[in-house]
């Protein structure tokens, strides 16, 4: 297997994201689902997934991380991206280990990043100053954050059943 650790020189940030999208698409296809990758210009949806036997579908936004375990960058737009068949696939590429995929419903992600941002804005900075609002958001797994329920990675790791495609 290719070593995709931090030492790997990737010319373009988009290559990291597309690697994660291809990896999730391959895993879904391996499980028997029809999986289509959207155009790079499609906002918020990277994969369209269908089970032709059950006639059920899911929309997936893929987020990929190489550098930081269990942390992915999102934006304020993700706070309002909520739906029963909308999901995130958070991919973490480690050195030589098999990449991890965490499937998380959009409502959980939206609630988590909204509350985390509210906490951050209400907490003074290192010098006592207030934080300024900005569009950046982070999603965490397995991180104990005061005022937030910790989202356990084991609940979401390789949990393709959460897509409810059967």
Molecular structure report:
The protein is of the alpha+beta class and 166 residues long. It has one domain (13-163): Trna Endonuclease, Chain: A, domain 1. It is built from three helices and seven strands; from the N terminus they run H-E-E-E-E-E-E-H-E-H. A five-stranded mixed beta sheet has the order 1-2-3-5-6. The protein has a two-stranded antiparallel ribbon with strand order 4-7. It is globular and about 55 Å long. The two termini are 31 Å apart. The model has no long low-confidence stretch (mean pLDDT 88).
Descriptive terms for the model:
single chain; 166 residues; alpha+beta; Trna Endonuclease, Chain: A, domain 1; five-stranded mixed beta sheet; two-stranded antiparallel sheet; 3 helices; 7 strands; 25% strand
């Amino acid at each position: 297997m290719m070593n995709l650790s931090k030492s790997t020189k990737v010319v373009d940030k988009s290559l990291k994201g597309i690697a994660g999208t291809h990896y999730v698409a391959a895993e879904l296809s391996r499980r028997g689902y029809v999986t289509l990758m959207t155009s790079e210009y499609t906002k918020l949806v990277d994969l369209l997934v269908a089970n032709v036997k059950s006639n059920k579908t899911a929309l997936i936004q893929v987020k990929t991380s190489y550098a930081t375990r269990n942390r992915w960058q999102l934006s304020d737009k993700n706070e309002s991206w909520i739906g029963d068949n909308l999901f995130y696939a958070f991919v973490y590429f480690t050195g030589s280990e098999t990449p991890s995929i965490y499937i998380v419903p959009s409502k959980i992600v939206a609630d988590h990043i909204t509350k985390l941002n509210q906490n951050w804005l209400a907490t003074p900075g290192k010098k006592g100053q207030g934080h300024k609002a900005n569009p950046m958001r982070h999603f965490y797994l397995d991180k104990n954050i005061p005022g937030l329920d910790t989202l356990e990675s084991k609940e979401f790791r390789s949990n393709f059943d959460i897509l409810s495609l059967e």
